[in-house]
# Entry
Amino acid sequence: MNTDIWQEDDKKYIWHPATQMKDAESFAFPVIERGKGPYLYDRVGKEYIDIISSWWCNLLGHCNAEINAAVKKQLDTLEHVIFASFTHRPAISLCRELTPLLPPGLQRYNFCDNGSSAVECALKMAFQYHCQTGHPERQRFMCLAGSYHGETIGALAVGSMDLYARLYRPLLTEAIHIDGLDCYRCPYGEQRDSCNCACIEHAEAAFARYGNVTAALIIEPLLQGAAGMRIYPPAYITKLRRLCDAYGVLLIDDEIAAGFGRTGTYFAIEQSRVSPDILCTSKGLTGGYLPMSLTITTEAVYRAFYDDYETHKAFVHSHTYAGNPLGCTAATTVLRILQRDAVLETASATGTYLHAQLQASLGNHSHIGEIRHIALINALEIVASKDEKKPYPPSRRIGFQIARQAMKRGLLLRPIGDVIYFNPPLNIDRTTLDQAVAICTDAVHAVLGYR
Ligand SMILES: *Cc1c(COP(=O)(O)O)cnc(C)c1O
# Structure
């Protein structure tokens, strides 16, 4: 194995996120030296296509010249300042420019520094809102089967994936999990495009039972990323919004993965033609440059906290790096590029192209169950048997094997179990995508054979 002193010392010191460190014994982690557009380069000059946008956050390519220039300029002006009772123009500009792109009604911004914190902020805000509007009995949260909202204790509690949460259950408050969402294996036999959302019956049952003691329902709109890039129809959210209204439950829209054009619109929930009460965003917000997140809410929620000091209604929630000016500057620059270059329209067309290419190369493979897609995101679900949609035993680590084959060939895949996916920067070019599809196809063939 080809290791160098940096890789040796990496193994000596660093505990990588969500990684079984023993895997490094058989596969040294590439030491990434620089990035350009959709490409990353390691110390020996090997090129990797970053087809997963470095964990879904890199929106407009690495070392984007415009974002670099804006951040450098801000760096020489003001790097950071306390955000409690101080303000600055980068934060104000960001809110000004983002507000017209948000679902109607959202206009009050709370700043945090990562996705999980934005979710924590939303949960506390919803809970306190009800306490201060005469409903202290609303202490529960609802979430959807297969949901993922982050890794901190509060966010894990509204997560529905055993992989992340099972071990910690004794530490977590008990959320109400709504069953139903798995369109690939739909028990009602509906097709995603013509679906009537019969599975809403599970949500109806949950609201009938717990609707009056629930503070908020939290959802990942249209796209359940960590569950394996599962995609579900907009109509389902419209129905959930109606249930929330009927029972006085707030709707928290976790757009951390889906926001900023990943599903074809600025925010995924737009496609359902409804607004949430609280929206969380992060990942693409700064173009994947800096850790920042926003929890944005309505005037109605904000007003429940606005009173004389002695009433103790303030939202006492803070993070040291809240509102960091470098992050705000990167975010504002991203918004300007997205609008000026009509990036979403181009990405949508590129997404159609990518899907056709993947379908032509791998659509007929006997172990690719489906290739689902929304805008540029394409996910391949690998199965042992296509007819029965039967998965491989997890111990075979099929997705992991394919990713390793792809890495050898210069394509950065990070599978979710046996789902491998493309979620590239929105401005990726077709030539790079052709290359990525070819490598992915070779990697699948190397592990699963040609048919
Ligand atoms: C990534 C993600 C989070 C957590 O964000 P972090 O910045 O990793 O804490 C929360 N919700 C969704 C939908 C995500 O994809």
